[in-house]
Structures are given as C-alpha cells and as structure tokens.
Amino acid sequence: MITRKVRKWEKLPGKNTFCCDGRVMMARQKGIFYLTLFLIIGTCSLFFAFECPYLAVHLSPAIPVFAVLLFLFVMAMLLRTSFSDPGVLPRALPEEANFIEMEIEAANGNVPSGQRAPPRIRNVQINNQIVKLKYCYTCKIFRPPRASHCSICDNCVDRFDHHCPWVGNCVGKRNYRYFYLFTLTLSLLTIYIFAFNIVHVVMRSVDQGFLNTLKETPGELTVLEVLVCFFTLWSMVGLTGFHTYLISLNQTTNEDIKGSWSGKNRGQNPYSHKNIIKNCCEVLCGPTYPSVLDRRGLMQEDSPAAANSEGPCSFDNPVAQTTKTTAPLIPNEHTPDDVKLSIAAEKSSGPKDDQPPAAMLPPLASPETDAETSI
Amino acid sequence: MATEFHNLQDMQHTASLVTKVFIQRDYSEGTVCRFQTKFPAELDNRIERALLEQTVKTLNSYYVEAEKVGGQSYLEGCLACATAYIVFLCMETRYEKVLKKISGYIQEQNEKIYAPRGLLLTDPIERGMRVLEISVFEDRGSSGSSPSSSMSSCSTAR
Q: What highest taxon heads this organism's lineage (chain B) (predicted)?
C-alpha cells in the first residue's frame, strides 16, 4: 500500500488553480487578470518615472508620496480579491448527499415512471419573506440563501456576487469588501493620475508651449497615460457607483441582474436592514468570515490499485471522497468492491441517478446553468 | 442499552459506523449561521432530547457571538482597512478565535456526553458550515457478536 500525504487543495473538485501550496486560490483563466496588473503597474510606473519628478520639484513632494500609498493600497486590494477564497461551499460528502436524496424522495413520494420529478426546491421563511433554496446537482446540496453556483469555477459560492475576469476570481462573501475597496481606490488613483497629468501638461505648456510639450518624451507618455486613465475612469467610477448602490440596499449583483428584489418585489429584500448606514456597515465592517475550505490541511492519499484491494478502509479520510461526489451513485474504478455491490443493489430497485434527471428535465431546470441564484 | 465505550479513541477504533445524522441549517433568521434545534428521529433512543438541544443552542450562541456586527467588529474592520488588511497576516480575527472555542467545546461534548452514548459530533466547519454531522456508531451493548452493518464505509472524525 502506497500512501502519501497530500494537501487537501490538490484533491478539491472545481476548476480553480492553486498556488503557493494552497495559499492562493484563483480561477483558471487568468489572462485578463494579467492585463489588469499590466495596466495598473504600467501606467503607475510611467507616472512615477516621468511626471512625479517634475511635480515633486515644481509643486510638492507630497504628490508622489500620496500616489505611492494609493498605488500600494490598490495593489493590496487587488491581490487580496484575486487570491482569496470567495466563500466556496465544499461539496457534500457521499453520506450527506445520500441523506439529502432520501429526504427529497421521502418528500416527493413515488413519482410514476415517465413523469418528470418535481424540481428540487426547499422553501424557507426569512424575515416574513419566502425564499426558495435550489438544489445544486453538481455540489449535491441545497444552496444556502444568496449562494449561487459559478459555472466558470464550478463551485457554489456563498453570497455570490459575480465572477470577475478582471480579478481572475469569483466575488463572494469573503472577498466582496476587498473588491469594493479595489474599485473605489482604483477610481481614486485613476482620477488622481489623470488630474496630475493634466496639471503636468498645463504647467509645461506654460513654460514651453503646448506643441513643444507634446513633442518631447515626457509629453507623449503623459498623453498615453491620460488616454488610459480617461477610459478607465468612466468604467471604474461607474462600477464603484453601482456597487455603492448595491451595498446600500444589501443586494448582490446576481440578485440585481435576476431582478429578485426589484419590480413587483421591490422593498421586500429580507436581508436588508432598511437603513443605508446599517447595510453599509454590515457589508464593509462585518465579521471576516473564515474559509471553510481547508486548503492546506493534510490528508492521506492511497494509490488506486490499493483502493480496490483494501476494501472499505481505503478511504480513511472523508475529504478524499469529495472527488467522487460529482457522481456518487455511479461506480468507477476507484469505488471499493463492497460499495459497488450496494450500489448495484440500489440500482436494481430503481433509484434516481444524476444523468437521467438531467436528460428528462427541460433545459431550464437542468443542473448546470450559468450562475443560478437561490431565487 | 448500556454502551461500553470508555473514550473517543476506543469507539473510533473498535465500533463500526451505523449511520450519520445531519442537523441542517436554520435560515429563518437570515444567512447568520444557526442550526435547527429540531430533534432528529433517528437519535430517539440514543440520547436525551434536552442534551442535544443544549449542545445545538450553545453552538448557535457561539456563532451569534462570532458574527455579531457591533463595536468590536467595526473597530477590527477599520483598523484592518487602514493597514490594507496586512494586519490579518499577524492577528487572529474574532471569528477565528470563536471557532477555536467552538472546536474545544465540541471536543469536550464528545468526550463527556456523546462518546459514552456511541455518538460523535463533527465540527460544522469541516462540513462547510452546512450541517452538524452526528455519526452514530453501533450500540455494542445491545447488538450481537461481529459488527455487521449495511453501510460499510469507514470514517474518522478528524
């Protein structure tokens, strides 16, 4: 028997990439994140190299100092948003998944063959509002309120806001405040650089004329920076304003897009405290939730050949079974023999499996839809 | 139905798992972490209702303490923001402190109350804070010779 200790992140299902031995967690596609880094670092480097010396001498040395502090804060917020666990909910282990399946079957009773099974929904009452909890076929759980399944990362995320390609990660409960601070401070940084570039051009033009300023080296780069800042500014200020609006109402982008608490449901958001200050405080100054994914914990891993011969005790750590939960009732080469027998016994009595419901149900109710919400 | 488990290790090594009971989250007060105090029928003859209820209520009060939005959480949030959240690399947050307390509490409850009855609580954080898992082990006092349960999966608590 060959067992080796592995970190739990190596066995986590879902489409995330991990770095630094599980300390860093991101989505798979990171191209746009690198672009974000390049734009921010590139523009700021040009500003520090070409405009700051002139401004420090002719105006005040405080200008570059403040720019450096702002830049460092922006980078810290960006990296914090990108690298942290957004609030991923781990998938149900087989026993929990079976327990839920049995509860669902008990609730639905006997569905005659050929008829579609009713959708798996649980109703809960939150602050006098009925909220529907949907069942996630991938994670095998009833999603908590405000959680949603991100199809890009293939995880259920708590208080799912949206998947942001610019930061290369989902934005959820754990990193929403960092994301908001990133957009806010990046807006400020963009406005700051934009304004002082204009000041720089104006001051140089006063000295040597506008056209001469543009022809010389610092002038061209200033124009480039102004252009980058101009386009960034509108999108960032708009995005910050949008998220400020969402925070004041205690809504997520997902809920806003789906129109959960607007239109005829306006004013019925059960999560809102009906007070802007309280809503802002809860989102921005609330407790810092810990990650429930134990990424750096150690676990035993058995080689597949050993798993079949060892029998039941080969899966000696429940987390090892998370990789199997996408199809718990379908035996594969890793399933121990006696579990295969029990599955075969279950199958002969005609239980539901993952694949048939997906085929039977119409597309709207299919398991994998993009960013389903709990409403 | 006296059981003969002397301690947690004894139970884990010698007993076989019969089933697992899951106490679900109670969302009636929002997204705050709270578990249902409804007593599961499967544990009817294994443990007294009052004891389990007391455990769940204490756990719920710990989570309320951890997630309280008040003076201390504002202070922590503002201080952390002012330092660009670098302070979290060296400081333990209030939530993490409470989680440690919870872990100690569950360990203590397992040793004192649940293991002698052939049960084992699993810390909810290990199940994504979704369920409170109670493993039900075979009742050696009442069953026959060899452990022969239909669920042949083995499980460790930690």
A: Eukaryota
| Residue A57 Cα distances to A45, A129, A197, angstroms | 18, 61, 15
Task: B33-41: list long-range contacts, CB under 8 Å, 24+ apart.
Answer: B33/B60, B33/B63, B33/B66, B33/B67, B33/B124, B33/B129, B34/B60, B34/B63, B34/B64, B35/B59, B35/B60, B35/B124, B35/B132, B40/B134
Helix (H) or strand (E) holding B64: helix B49-66
**Nearest neighbour of B95 by CB, restricted to A94, A158, A289:** A289
For residue B119, the distance in angstroms to the closest alpha carbon of chain A comes to 16
Long-range own/partner contacts, residues B124-127 (CB < 8 A, 24 or more apart): B124/B33, B124/B35, B124/B59, B125/A290, B125/A292, B125/B99, B126/A294, B127/A90, B127/A93, B127/A96
pLDDT tens digits, A6-62? 888 888 888 989 988 888 999 999 999 999 999 999 999 999 998 888 889 988 899
Bridge partner list, A27:
A16
Tokens in use for B62?
């710990």
Which residues, given as ranges, of chain B have pLDDT below 50?
A: 1-5, 142-158
Catalytic residue among A139, A164, A170, A229: A164
Q: How many residues does chain B have?
A: 158
The residue to which tokens 């502090």 are assigned: A69
Averaged pLDDT score across all residues of chain B: 81
Distance separating alpha carbons of residues A223 and A208, to the nearest angstrom: 16
Distances (CA, A) of B6 to A141, B111, B113, B145: 35, 9, 11, 19
Chain B nearest C-alpha distance from A114 (Å): 31
The neighbour count for residue B103, using CB atoms within 10 Å, is 13
Tokens found for residue B153: 């999966």
Report the C-alpha gap between A193 and B89 in whole angstroms: 30
What is the structure's pLDDT at A69? 95
Q: Say if residue A358 is exposed, middle or buried (CB neighbours under 10 Å; 0-12, 13-18, 19+).
A: middle
Residue A355 has pLDDT above 50, yes or no: no
Chain B residues with CB under 8 Å of A72 CB are 84
Going from N- to C-terminal start, the domains of chain A cover 5-89+163-285, 94-143
Q: Alpha helix (H) ranges present in chain A?
A: 31-46, 52-58, 62-83, 94-108, 176-208, 210-215, 217-249, 253-258, 276-285, 304-310, 337-348, 355-360
A164 catalytic residue (yes or no): yes
Q: Which of residues 129-148 of A touch B (CB under 8 A)?
A: 131, 133, 141, 144-146
The interface predicted TM-score of the complex, written ipTM, equals 0.81
Query: How many of the other CB atoms lie within 10 Å of CB of B4?
Result: 13
